Amino acid sequence: MLCLYSRPGWTFASCVLAAAFSAPAFGAVLFVNADLATGANSGASWADAYRGKDALARAMQASASGDEIWVASGIYRPTTSNSRLATHTLRSGVAVYGGFVGNERLRDQRDALANATVVSGDLLGNDANGTNINDNSYHLFVASGAGSGALLDGLIIEGGYANSASPADSDKGAGILVIGAGSSPTVRNCTFRRNRCTFGGGAAYAFNATVTFIDCRFESNIGGSFGGAVDMNNVVGTYERCVFIGNTAGRAGACESYGGSLTKYTNCLFRGNSATGANGGGALWIGVSSSATIRNTTFVENSASILAGCIINTGGSSSIGNSILWGNTGPGGTTLANQITNSGGTTSVSYSIVQGGYAGTANLSSNPLFVDLAAGDLHLAAGSPAIDSGNNSLVPTGVNTDLDRLPRFADDPNVPNTGVGIAPIVDRGAYERPAPACIADLNGNGLVDAPDLTILLTDWGLLGPGDLNGDGVVNAPDIALLLSAWGPC
Question: Is residue 299 within 8 Å of 311, Cβ to Cβ?
């Protein structure tokens, strides 16, 4: 039997077809295409995909643990009515993947960058530059109670507006709301943009939960009082290779950690976020007994009207390593206090560049020399003091790539190694400056050999470290480049 359980409207032939389309081992693939005009509307195949603007919501409602939901490009809304309470509900063990054309047979054939899958809160389709939003959805996704295996991947999430205190929590988490012990969704390769709320967490709000965001972008979200992008209360939060740009709130322009939250930021970028109220934290506000562990992260041009322009720690013990804090502003300009302020909490900093200087091991105060700060290109320019000057032991175990998903450890032969560890030495900040003569050395061991070929083949058809020619996909030309560089660097 090729189908472990049935769905309404499914036939044995449907089960066979779903299996042929790389169905999960213990579930089914449900197909979704908002713009499809024909077919059974059952989700059993691309030809019979769930269709209509609420197709994703219906597929998620019909799903069961072990299922995958494949979503074609298009615009999706929680409902075809004007009910602001309607949402997409995540379930344990159900993975939602966007970015399909609508004819793929394998999940890895999708291209989320080329095939925008937009989940919009603009129920009436009348948003205009931040106006006409009072009829928008309160929450685009709710993951409360969604535990292991709950996944969103490859979606653009926009236009949620949580502006009501009733019903409960309708003023929080316009993009995604996660509340309750046992809730532990993972969000990957998603963009949250132009979501807003009146309490906290324009893009995401989490309480008594665990949240993981990987390769996500948070841009132009408004968090009301707390957390322009994300507001967390007693949460375990993990952020890897995430970008926060232009988010704003009264307190914590990008992310707030409240209560006993434990957050980790690795290979992340915070730029142009702002706190407009009295409590500061243009990028991060860390409070009560919360703590943040920050590694290889770049903070630039964040601002606050009052108190710290970048990070303020009002409680708990946090640590920063291999990072860059530069050009963050508040009262008095780009002073040290506007890079990091401790107001009841403690923050240890090492192997980092902090404008104005900061006490700690191997910290620098010199210009990090970005490629083009004015244009927002925060890659390291030749001669940057951040190159090969970090501490390898501060890089979390298993982290082998930078924000660009290029090798995290790469040696620049034109720069002396001033950091700590066995060469190659990690750079400071979110981006590693690539080794100029040996881009095919994907594992950074000084050789182009079989392990590098394995890394490349693992990313075949995707965007990853193996994309040696930078064309957005790992394919045959990249193999040719690797083979041409075979041997010692």
Answer: yes
Residue type at 128?
A
Q: Encode burial over 436-458: b for 16+ CB neighbours within 10 A, e otherwise.
A: eebbbbbbbeebbbeebbebbee
Tokens standing for residue 178: 């996660």
Instruction: Let me know how long the chain is.
Output: 489
Report pLDDT digits (tens) over 336-345.
999 999 999 9
Candidates 314, 302, 311; CA nearest to 265 is: 311
Show the beta-strand stretches assigned E in 146-283: 151-153, 156-158, 161-162, 176-179, 186-188, 191-193, 196-197, 204-207, 210-214, 217-219, 230-233, 236-240, 243-245, 248-249, 255-258, 262-266, 269-271, 274-275
What angle separates helix 476-484 from helix 450-458, to the nearest 10 degrees? 170
Of 121-130, 366-375, 426-435, 471-480, the least confident: 471-480
What tens digit of pLDDT does each residue of 393-412 get?
A: 999 999 999 999 999 999 88
- Tell me the whole-structure pTM to 2 decimals: 0.86
Q: Which of 453, 464, 442, 383 is nearest to 418 (CA)?
A: 383
The closest alpha carbon to 405, from 353, 351, 477, 472, belongs to 472
DSSP state, residue 427: P
Cα-based distances in Å from 348 to 75, 112, 232, 248: 45, 39, 22, 26
From first CA to last CA, the distance across the chain in angstroms is: 52
Greatest pairwise CA separation for the chain in angstroms: 70
Q: What is the DSSP letter of 391?
A: B
Indicate if the alpha-carbon torsion angle 336, 339, 340, 343 is positive or negative: positive
Q: What 3-state DSSP class applies to 484?
A: helix
Distance of CA 97 to the CA centre of its chain: 15
For tokens 């590098």, name the residue.
Answer: 452
CB distance 302 to 282 below 8 Å: yes
Closest CA to 156 of 206, 99, 213: 99
Helix (H, G, I), strand (E, B), or coil: what is residue 60?
A: helix
Contact criterion met (CB below 8 Å) for 294 and 321? yes
Amino acid at 420: V
Residue 257 has pLDDT above 70, yes or no: yes
- The CA radius of gyration of the chain, in Å to the nearest whole number, is 23
CA–CA distance, 398 with 390 (Å, rounded to integer) = 17
Rounded Cα gap, residues 351 and 294, in angstroms: 12
